[in-house]
Every structure is written in structure tokens, then in C-alpha cells.
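Appendix B. Raw example, untouched.
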Amino acid sequence: MSLFSKKEKSVEEVPEVCLDGVSEGSDVVTEEQIDAVMKKYDRESNTRIWTGVPHLLVTAIMSLFSLYCIWSTLFNKAPLEVRLTAFLGCVIVMGYLYYPASKQHVRPNYMPWYDIVIMVVGAACFFYYCFSYASLARILTSASKMSEMQILIGVVGLLTMFELCRRCVGVPILCVLGALLIYTFVIGLPLRRLIYTLFYSTGGVIGTPAQVCAKFIVVFIVFGSFLERTGISKFFIDLANKIAGWSSGGPAKVAVISSALCGMVSGSSVGNTVTTGSVTIPMMKKTGYKPEFAGAVEAAASTGGQIMPPIMGAAAFLMAEYMGIPYGQVALKAILPAVLYFSGIFISVHLEAKKLGLKGLDRKELMPAAQLFARVYLLAPLVVLVWLVSTNLKTMAFAASVSILAAIVVGLPQQIIDSHRAYGGKNGSFGKAAGDVVKQTCKTIFASLEAGGKGTITVAVACAIAGCIAGCITATGLASKLITGIVAVSQNSVLFALFLTMLCCIVLGMGVPTTANYCIMAATTAPILIRMGLPAVSAHFFVFYFGIVADITPPVALAAYAGSAIAKSNPMKTGVNATKLAIAAFIVPYMFAFSPALLFDGAPGVLSVLQIAVTAMVGIFGVSSALEGYIFREMPWWQRIVSAAGGLALIYPGLVTDLIGLGLIAVVLLLQFAGRKHVQAA
């Protein structure tokens, strides 16, 4: 599981990447094409190339770091500052070993001397804090006690982290931080106090985001890397094919289901778009969907992976920390909104298929049920994780560690089968096969540990920078000023405040990774809604959702651009289509803002939850059909307006609005059904 941050690319550049080495009319997506798309939209893919002995050394460092994080989470009892500065010091070393200053430096076994200097000096600043903490804790009781050397160490340590952020996360989040730093100097905040806040206190680079990252997120990243190597992603695609591949427009429905499932593992909208999209997008185009629609379906569904429990792009752990509730409750509260989100995409996909008269896959092409059922054991690690977390028998870190062992175990059967086939069951082959299994298992373990360590870099750096952003906001008192300003502008109108907050979240979330994205929203916009009277759970989920949809909202719709590169479509049109498909993401947050029962908040009754869930589903259907312009037949413009109005009326809780909304949609359905009968009779 990894989180990415990308820069916005020009529309004209995209087709060059997707067509590189592929014929104009070809729908085949090659490994080279996937790599090109990832390097274009995923900064994390632009890494140094290590071969031979250097590669083994870097792999060993990454693997040892992953093992250290697991050990530290489970057993390390050192002070928080010691653990976090050691953690970030290791991240600095790994980050500069992997990420060059620019693409021009991506050459085999090449690392400029100045990168080595920056890496050593930057890591030394954090390790100085780590190993000198006992004395620093007695001396640095306030900013005024800092020496000039300690100020310099803090400045160098922060600048090193900022540069690593530019390399592996991206510029957008640094722009936010830069604006806040300028604001701190404008209002006259002393440099000494700023450095103390951002580097030496637990309100900056080692603030809450970094604490949650080191304590929970890293272990789950390692778990995700193990889980991916069990072949569970392919199992999810095969399962989705079996469930919906045969129906009308089946491949698009497969994309929705598989991306929802794979998103639990990948934790990245862009990464999920590219990996599952390389399979599903060509299938959709072959079925008859337009390229812009095919790329949009995958982008919208993959973005939904960030809101899909139990992982939720690693943000679930931060949400638990900020809201002060157990992680299991966060995952539980996310279920209904996620179901509504994917239902909205599924409805749009189905209506588009009916409008175009598309058919599904031939049932003969689908994997037999018996063969698919035989691979159900691949779900064991997820089942173990959910069971341990939901029962609160052990800590989350322990649950993730046990789930890692389960992932190793479930990977053995396939290795045994492959080895047995390779030797053809000949006499004396058992020992050789067993040796191969042991060897392959060891390779898988080291590869997973390395991937986990590498995936941690961007998340840890993003969390560290997000902590600095929160530190600046706290030190300057900007949060209270923002709250006062928006409350004044909205004139105590909750709906208007929600709308303004939505715009802030989408703008601030453009090009920012999921984890850092939520940290910024939790520090800046969530308190505004809480001040307006919204429950804390509703406020945090609201800002989380609208921060996520920035990945499919033009102009910086990175997931949509990645999908368009594979689909060979116009990026902007793909982004617009993705926004239409994900309309539920723009509606559901307002629903649970006005009806917290949708998040199981406030101990609602079963009937209350069912009523809200049903009306929400009907409302999403009304808006989706209006945007699609089809139910049983083409909808005239006035029916689309009536359908959209009915869907929007169901957003606001209340018997009157619910009856109006249901009535309007019922009228449209009757007219559509009667019109279809009339067309058939003619």
C-alpha cells in the first residue's frame, strides 16, 4: 500500500506516453506502457536504478527498516521523541538513496556527491535529536533556551525534509507550507520560536501525523506489500468478472468492483487506476464503451479505494487519532458511505451500457466457480486483520503483524503447485520442489519488506510536512481566524459553510497524497464545521471525502489523467466523465453531514439507518440517471431536471423533502417506463 503525489501534466503530453511503443489501434497494455504512465503521473516511480551489490545493499537497508518498524511498534518503549526522530532519520537516508533531484539523474548506480552530503547531514540532524534527547529534554523547555547551533540543526533538518518532499511527494503540499511560512514571518513570529515548534516540539515534523505513521501506518504498508504478492489483486479481478462480467456492459462493472476491492490493498488512486486499469480499460473499450468513459470509470472507482474500509488509504488511522475513537469504529462508520459511492458509479455504468446496447462477456470466458472458490484462501489475511481489529483482542500493530504472517502462509500453496508442475511429479523431485518453495518464500519476504520500506518513504515525508503545516497553523492562530471568517461569511448557514468548506478541500487537496491531504483538512477545515454545530465524526468524514475527490476533479485530476493515458483518450474529457460518475462523492458527504446516522453516529436505531440508506440510494439514482440521461430510454431535458431535483431533495433529511424527492423520481420512472412501452409498441 502506498500513497502518491503527482504534478499536473499538460493535456498534450498524455497521448505521447500512452502510445509509446504501441500501435495506434491497439488496446494491448504492455508493461512498458504501464511503467511509462506510472513514471509520468507517479513521482514515486521515478527512482534511482540500483544494480548488483548496491542493489543488494539498498534492499537490505529497506528490509531492515521494515523489520525495525514492526519491532518498534510492538516492543519499543523509548520516549516518543526518540522513536520518531530515529524513524525520520532512517526515512531521510532511504529517501535520498531512492529519489534523485531530477529525472536526469536516473542512471544505474549513480548518486551525486551532493546528494550523499545532504543525506548524511540531514539524517544526522534527526539522529542528533534522537541520541541527545535525554539532555535536550532538560535544556529545551522553551524556544528561548535554544542555542545558535541547535537552531542551525533544526533549520538544516527541516530543509532536508522539505527537499525530500519535493522529490518524492511533489510541490503542491510545499506550496501550502510555503504560504504558511511566509505568513508566520509577516505576522512577526520569531524564527527561534518557529524552529522550536516545527523541529523540537511534538507539534511539527514529529507531530500527530508522523506519530500515527510510525505507530500504525508503516506496519499496514508492509502488510499491504505482502498481501499484493499473494496474487489477491488478480483474484479480485477474477471474482468481479464472475459476479458482473456476464451482465450488460460487464467489464465496466468489473472495473468498479475490482477497483473497490483492490483499493483496500493499494491505498492509491493513481496506482490503483494504472494496475487494475491495465486489465479493465481495454476490456471496456472492446465491449463498446468510449475511451473517455472507460478511463473515467476506472479513475472514479480507483479513487473510491481511498474511502473503502478497512484500510481507507491509511487515513483511517489518522481519523481515529484526530476523532479520538477506535480504528474499528472508523472502518465501521465508513461502510455505508462507501457502498453508496460505488453504487452511484455502478448505476451510471449500467445505464450507459443499456443506452449503448452493450453486452457482457461470454460466460465461457469466465473462470469456473470451482476454480475461483479454490482460491478463497487468499482472503485469509484480510479476514484475520478485520477479526483482530474488530474484536479488540490485541493492538492494531499486533493485528497487522499477525496478518503479515498469514499473507506469507497463503502464498505458499501457489508456490508449491508451481514447483510441483515444474518438476512434473518425477521421482526425487520432492526435495528439489521443497527447496524451491523455501527459496521463493525468502525472496517474497525480502521483496515485500523492501516494497514496504519504499512505500513508507512518501507517506512518512507527507506526514512530516503535514505536521509542519499543522504546527504553523497552531503557532500563528490561523485556524481560529479561518473559522471566524467562514462563520461570518456563511452567516451561520450550515449549508453555505459546507459548500465553502467543500471548495477549500478540493483546492487544497489537488496533487496532495491521501494521508497528508486529510491531515491538512483536519487541521484547517474540520474545526470550521465543528464550530458550526456538526458532530466531529461528520465533519472529519466530510473534509476527508472532498479532499479525496480532487484526484478526479479537473483541472488537477491525476487519477483521471492516468486512466486517460491507458485508454488513449482526451484527459480533460476523461476527468469530466470521472466527476460525473463519482457524483455520489459530492452528494454523500452532505447526506451524512445532515444525517449523522448514515455514519452510525449518535446511536441511531436500525429503522432510522435503513430509512436514510434507502432514501440516499434513491437520491443517488435520481442524480446519476439525470446526468446519464437514460433510464429505460433517452430522457428529455425536463425529465433530467425533475430527476436531479428529486435526487437532491433526498439529500436533506426530513419527511417533506423525502416525500417530494421520492415523488419526483417516481414520476420520472413511470414516464420512462410508459415511454419505453410506447416505443416498443410502435
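End of appendix B.
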